[in-house]
Every structure is written in structure tokens, then in C-alpha cells.
Task: inverse folding
């Protein structure tokens, strides 16, 4: 309140200055007319002037406070605004300003509702599509697992690559929808890091073999508290990222998974490192931005820029710290650091 009073006084200080100048002028006239009664009359005049100014300032303050209150209410309930409800504190230019502001807000509210409806329908469609496409994907997986001997190795590899790519895209859609949901289905429990990493490697086993990766899973059998599905998704994305950015100039592709932990095993980190193309220094700050694909690799034409973004968002949801180290041409390493929940 004191700040509002101070602001009100500053807004009308020019009138206060004019009042003081007028009092000084009339005080001079009083002194010239009757020097003996000067002090009494001048004091009375100054007192009355200050009282009038104080009363006027109080009236202006109350009016401004009411204007502010009504304006805030208009902003909050702009869709239900009726000009007749405006109090008399708004007149002339003020009323025109309020009318123009409310019309703009109402138009914006209609556009926002329409956009929100469109986005909601689009999200519902994408989620429904992701669930529906699981049926042909499951059939494709069944055929690949049970009819492998009936197709050539080249055809099998191509179909397996398509299956893995489709599975990854569907997973990204579903996890993206899950991250935006106000409710979480995460189940925190103690899970084995080694088992979780082995699941991710098994999922991409065919592609790792096709690219002739020498995989070293040196992850210790450590227990961390996290959501199994979320963590498996993050590991799978890291492995997939390594496969996508394989360096064709390297004669031997390597993928190393290992853990580091403190003596009391309260500080645990999972490292996934490859010897692929790597990332230039100027791209590193933007790796986790949604849609960022970089400009240094030929693969960026096919990349969506969603993988590492989803990893970062999932890590934030699961309270896992994520860090990356990379140099162009020297490989890429992603690190997951788990919180101590004891």
C-alpha cells in the first residue's frame, strides 16, 4: 500500500509543486500587504493547501485503486465482459481503451480455444495411431522371429532394420505423449542396471551385428531406484543414437557400457560410449533441444531431433542427471547420474 501511495504522489507531484509555488506567491503578497499578520495567515494558507492536496490525493488514490481492481477483473473474466458493468470510474478515453483491450482479449481467447482443441485432437489421433500400429508391428516381429529361415539374410536384415526403426518411432510418440500428460504412470523400484542395459542391447542386437559393433557391457550389477520402462527407453535411445551415427571411416565400431560408483555406492553413474562420428563443440549446447539435428552429419536428413530431447525430458521426470562428452570424429558418450534416495 505504501508503494501505491508513493506512486500516486509521484504521478501528481507536478500539481503539488504548482500548489507550493502558488502559496509562495500569495505569501509574498501577504507579506507586502500586512507584515505583522504574515506568519499567521501564511501558516493557515499552507495548512489548508496541504489538507486540500492530501484529500485530493486520497480521492485519486481510491479511484485509481478501484480502476486497477476493475481492470484486473476485466482481464480475468474478459470472456464474460459487458460494458454496462463498468463503473463510472472509467469514462471517456479510459472506457474506449478498456473496450479495445477486452475485444482483443476475447478474440485471442477464441483463437486459443480453437488451437487447444486442434492440438488435443491431434494428440489423441497420434496416440490412437501409435497403439493401433502396434498390431501389424507385433505381426511383423512374429514373422521375423519364426520365419527367419524362409528368407534371405539380406531381406531379413532390411526388415529387421525397418521393424526397429518403426518400434523406435512408436516409442518416441508414446513417451512424448506420456511426458505431456498431467498424470504419471512411473513406478519407482529398485532395478538392476546391468539387466536394464542388456535389454537395450538385445533390442538392437541385429543392427549392432549388421554394423559389426564390438559391444562391451561392463555394467556392474548395481541397484538403482527408478522407473524400469523409462530407464530402458533412455538406454535404448542412447544405443540407437550410436548406431545412427556410426562412422563409416572407422574399420571397427565399438560400443562400451560401464558404471562408476563411490565406495558407499550412493553415487552411481552409467556411461554409454561409442567411437562414432562424434559431435562438434558448437553443436553440444543444443543437443537436447527439441528438433535439433545438427548440420555436421549426413544422417541429419533422416533424423528427427527428438531422441535426445526425449531422453532429457524423461531424465528430468525420473530425477536423473544427464551429461554428454564428445569430440567430432572421436565418438560420443552419454552419462546418466542417479540420485541417492536413501
Result:
Amino acid at each position: 500500500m505504501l508503494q501505491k501511495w508513493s506512486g500516486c504522489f509521484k504521478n501528481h507531484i507536478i500539481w503539488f509543486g504548482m500548489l507550493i509555488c502558488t502559496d509562495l506567491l500569495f505569501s509574498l503578497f501577504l507579506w507586502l500587504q500586512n507584515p505583522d499578520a504574515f506568519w499567521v495567515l501564511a501558516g493557515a494558507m499552507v495548512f489548508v493547501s496541504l489538507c486540500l492536496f492530501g484529500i485530493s490525493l486520497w480521492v485519486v488514490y481510491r479511484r485509481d485503486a478501484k480502476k486497477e481492481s476493475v481492470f484486473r477483473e476485466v482481464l480475468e473474466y474478459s470472456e464474460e465482459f459487458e460494458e454496462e458493468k463498468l463503473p463510472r470510474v472509467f469514462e471517456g478515453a479510459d472506457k474506449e481503451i478498456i473496450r479495445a483491450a477486452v475485444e482483443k482479449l476475447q478474440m485471442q481467447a477464441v483463437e486459443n480455444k480453437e488451437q487447444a482443441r486442434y492440438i488435443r485432437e491431434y494428440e489423441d489421433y497420434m496416440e490412437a495411431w501409435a497403439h493401433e500400429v502396434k498390431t501389424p508391428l507385433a505381426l511383423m516381429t512374429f514373422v521375423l522371429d519364426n520365419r527367419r529361415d524362409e528368407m534371405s539374410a539380406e531381406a531379413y536384415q532390411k526388415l529387421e532394420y525397418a521393424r526397429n526403426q518403426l518400434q523406435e518411432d512408436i516409442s518416441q510418440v508414446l513417451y512424448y505423449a506420456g511426458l505431456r500428460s498431467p498424470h504419471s504412470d512411473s513406478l519407482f523400484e529398485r532395478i538392476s542396471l546391468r539387466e536394464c542395459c542388456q535389454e537395450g542391447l538385445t533390442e538392437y542386437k541385429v543392427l549392432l551385428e549388421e554394423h559389426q559393433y564390438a559391444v562391451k557391457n561392463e555394467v556392474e550389477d548395481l541397484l538403482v531406484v527408478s522407473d524400469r520402462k523409462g530407464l530402458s527407453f533412455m538406454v535404448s535411445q542412447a544405443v540407437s543414437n550410436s548406431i545412427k551415427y556410426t562412422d563409416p571411416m572407422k574399420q571397427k565400431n565399438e560400443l562400451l557400457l560401464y558404471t562408476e560408483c563411490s565406495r558407499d555406492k550412493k553415487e552411481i553413474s552409467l556411461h554409454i560410449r561409442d567411437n562414432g562420428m562424434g559431435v562438434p563443440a558448437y553443436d553440444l549446447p543444443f543437443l537436447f533441444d527439441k528438433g535439433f539435428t545438427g548440420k555436421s552429419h549426413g544422417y541429419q536428413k533422416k533424423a528427427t531431433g527428438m531422441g535426445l530431447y526425449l531422453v532429457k525430458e524423461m531424465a528430468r521426470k525420473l530425477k536423473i542427471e544427464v551429461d554428454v562428452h564428445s569430440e567430432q570424429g572421436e565418438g560420443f558418450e552419454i552419462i546418466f547420474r542417479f540420485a541417492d534416495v536413501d
Summary: Residues 276 and 331 are 4 Å apart (CA to CA).
